[in-house]
Amino acid sequence: MSFIRIDPRRSSGEDQPSAISQQPSAPQSRRLPPWFKVKIQTGPDYHDIRKTMDRLNLHTICEEARCPNMWECWNARTATFLILGDICTRRCHYCSVATGRPHAVDHEEPLRVAEAVQALNLRHAVITSVNRDELDDGGASVFAETIGHIRRLIPSCTIEVLIPDFEGNEAALALVAAEKPDILNHNIETVRRLFPSIRPQGKYQRSIELLGRAKQMGMTTKSGLILGMGETTDEAREVMRDLRSVDCDIMTIGQYLQPTKDHLSVARFYHPDEFAALKEEGLALGFRHVESGPLVRSSYHAEQQVMGH
C-alpha cells in the first residue's frame, strides 16, 4: 500500500480559509494542499475489474478522465462504464477524454457491458458516454440498449446513466427515460458565465432544461458541479438554485484538477470546510442528497445515493 499526491500541472500549497470566498483567485503553481493525498491499493477486486474490462474490450471513465478515486472505487467493486467509444466529438477545456472523429458504433457493446456487470456481480451500475454529436440521436439508443441488457441479465442491479445533452433532442432523452434508469444524471459542470469558454459546444440553459424534462418524465435526476475553474461561490450557489428550480434531486460538487498542461489551469483550491458548507446550503435548498468534497466526482458513492431513493 502506498500514497500519492494527485499531480495536476498547476497546484497550490496554501490552505484556504474556512469561510467561503466570494471571488476567484489567480491560477496557482505550487504544491497541492495536504488534503489531496490518495491511498493507492490494488487488491483482488481492483484486478478483477481491470481483467473483466480488458477481456470484454470495454472502457471506463475512471481511466479516461484520470479519476483520483479509481483505486477506492475499484476496490469496492464499483466502476463507471464508458460507452460509445473513447473519442469525444466535443472539446471541453477541463476534460482529458480524447477529442476527434469517433469510430463506428459498436452494436455489441451494450451486451458486453451487461455481461461485465453480471461477471462482477454489481449491485449498482453507472453508465456514461462520450458525446457523439454526429449521430442522429446522440447515442441515446445505445444507452437504452445497454440498460435493457442489464435489466434482462441482472434484474436486481440498479442503474444510473450519466448522459450528454443530446443537443437538446427531446426524443433522444425520452428513449433513455423509457428504459427507466434508477437515476438520470447530466452534469452541468460549471457556472453560467464560464460555460461558453469552458464548454463551448454546450449550452448552460439547455442542460438545465434537459434535467427539467427528465424530471417531468418521472426520473430521479442528478447533476454535478466542478469548482476551481474561475467561478465565484455566489455563481456556484446560482447553479444550485437553477438545478433546484427544475427539481433536481441529487448533486455532486468536487474540485477541478488540471489533467495535463494543455488543459485549463486551476484557478484555486477550495478548502474541505468550504465543500462542507456548500453541502449544507444544498440540503437547505431541498436536494435529497449532496455529495461534496475535494475528491468528489459524479459517480463517487453512487450506490449509496441510489439506495437512499
From TrEMBL:
Enzyme class: transferase
Matching NCBIfam families: lipA (TIGR00510), PRK05481.1 (NF004019), PRK12928.1 (NF009544)
Superkingdom of this protein's organism: Bacteria
Protein location: Cytoplasm
Pathway: Protein modification; protein lipoylation via endogenous pathway; protein N(6)-(lipoyl)lysine from octanoyl-[acyl-carrier-protein]: step 2/2
CDD domains hit by this protein: Radical_SAM
Pfam families: LIAS_N (PF16881), Radical_SAM (PF04055)
Cofactor entry: [4Fe-4S] cluster
Protein name in UniProt: Lipoyl synthase
Alphabetical list of SUPFAM superfamilies matching this protein: Radical SAM enzymes (SSF102114)
Biased composition regions of type Basic and acidic residues, renumbered to the chain: 1-13
Record keywords: 4Fe-4S, Cytoplasm, Iron, Iron-sulfur, Metal-binding, S-adenosyl-L-methionine, Transferase
The UniProt record lists the keyword Iron-sulfur: yes
